[in-house]
């Protein structure tokens, strides 16, 4: 089955460009479009897309509020890929903190756009580049550090979290640690449970904000 995508952006040319790039792929299909975050929830419920590619800045409801609304109200919500102009935009980081699964620059090359959609759909690695890591570190706090201490990760779980924070997939982590992929999945699940994280993105944000992992 193809990966289905809902495009949400207030600029028709951006939506048209993304549609042209994505629909050129045999394994990706654009399920629909919206011009504002306020239209996302009904379309998600109607179309059940795998991924929502959502602009972070829109006039009525921005990508941050739309992300929160989808995750709060939609059962089995789609993956959310934030689309933005500036990679160091604090709006992007707030969207990731709200639960988005990654972000994509509007100026990205077609191959990068396709890769981002596939990566987010698979859910086993992250779009978390250096600029966002730096923002995450700036949000460091005592509560985040205390939460990380309470998690009491094992040595292997800590190693897995560090590699997750570098954006490695389960298969890449397995190769690095010389273990099976299923073993990595078990460790990832344990890390998420101990941190109270919804997904890998939230776990990695916790790692940076607590100082457990630092930007390079």
From TrEMBL:
Q: Which residues carry this modification: 4-aspartylphosphate?
A: 55
Report the domain of life of the source organism.
Answer: Bacteria
Q: Which Pfam families match?
A: GerE, Response_reg
HTH luxR-type domain segment(s)? 146-211
Q: Which UniProt keywords apply?
A: DNA-binding, Phosphoprotein, Transcription, Transcription regulation
Which intervals hold domain Response regulatory? 4-121
Q: Which PANTHER family match?
A: TRANSCRIPTIONAL REGULATORY PROTEIN NARL-RELATED, TWO-COMPONENT RESPONSE REGULATOR
Q: What is this protein called?
A: Response regulator
Source species: Streptomyces albidochromogenes
């Amino acid at each position: 089955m193809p990966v289905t995508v809902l495009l949400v952006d207030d600029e028709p040319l951006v939506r048209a460009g993304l549609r042209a790039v994505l629909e050129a792929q045999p394994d990706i299909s654009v399920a629909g479009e919206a011009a504002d975050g306020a239209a996302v929830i009904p379309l998600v419920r109607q179309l059940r897309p795998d991924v929502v590619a959502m602009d972070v800045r829109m006039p009525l409801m921005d990508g941050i509020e739309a992300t929160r609304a989808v995750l709060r109200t939609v059962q089995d919500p789609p993956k959310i890929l934030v689309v933005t102009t500036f990679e160091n935009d604090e709006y992007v980081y707030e969207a990731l903190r709200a639960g988005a699964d990654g972000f994509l620059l509007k100026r990205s090359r077609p191959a990068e756009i396709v890769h981002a959609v596939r990566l987010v759909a698979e859910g086993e690695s992250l779009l978390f580049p250096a600029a966002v890591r730096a923002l995450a570190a700036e949000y460091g706090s005592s509560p985040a550090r205390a939460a990380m201490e309470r998690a009491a990760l094992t040595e292997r779980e800590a190693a897995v979290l560090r590699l997750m924070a570098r954006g490695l997939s389960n298969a890449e982590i397995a190769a690095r640690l010389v273990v099976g992929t299923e073993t990595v999945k078990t460790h990832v699940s344990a890390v998420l449970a101990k941190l109270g994280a919804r997904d890998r993105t939230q776990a990695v944000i916790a790692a940076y904000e607590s100082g457990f992992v630092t930007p390079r």
